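Lab notebook page, bench 4
Experiment: in silico fold of construct C2
Operator: M.H.
Input chain length: 285 residues
Purpose: comparison with the prior construct
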Amino acid sequence: MGVLKKFEQRLEGLVNGTFAKVFKSEVQPVEIAGALQRECDNNATIWNRERTVVPNDFIVELSAPDYERLSPYSGQLGDELSGMVRDYAKQQRYTFMGPIKVHLEKAEDLDTGLYRVRSRTLASSSSQAPAGPGAAPAGGQQRGGGYGYPPAAGAQAGAPAGAPPMPAAPPPGAARGPQARAQGPAGPLPGAQTRRWIEINGTRHQISRTTMVLGRSTDADVRIDDPGVSRRHCEIRTGTPSTIQDLGSTNGIVVDGQHTTRATLRDGSRIVVGSTTIIYRQAEG
């Protein structure tokens, strides 16, 4: 069972209790969970064959209305999201430099239903080397710049002596970004081809042509039986990078939390059409 599915199931038991109001907001907890997974993938840094370091401190920026709905439950929601990140890291064999924390913040420039995730790596004062896969040592010491927001206090020259080195400056030949774990210092394997597919409700649909039309029509390449989906709703176009284009649908598309008519896709991109969620995947080889 996937990490996101387990996360959803854990929350199901709380829907009629503490989290009842949370699920009335435009931004759903599972959307944030997916964004945190992508944040780990996109900021993975290879230290050596045994260690791929990812951020452990996350800021989730929400619109004012969504923040007001979610903030009263930020403690419990933060714990659930941190647990999801830990499970995902164990699955991907990622490593942390310190404890995992997820914080909610209000962003006045975001509209209802939109969110933004920032992250950084905070080292634990008790850790002289990255912790093992999925580990989260206690007693975090804030140090170093971030992958998405300003350095914490103590990040400059006055930082405590003996603090562990930060992955913001990885060893020579280290790789970063969504393909970091796959390529290593020597880059992608010669002649490797990119495989692309989408996942809808657990079903995989291979993308074998340069375009793929999604919609409710039987003429669509992938038919989606959802009343909120137009007959020819959107089209995925493969390339470097791959993109998705709205085809004049009634309800539009949401890609990685952003309402849009056209967007670039990356491995793990989350596409919402009507009430259906589509996960875009790609891999070398």
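Observations: The helical segments are 3-12, 29-42, 64-70, 74-92, 180-183. The mean pLDDT is 74.
Next step: discuss at group meeting.
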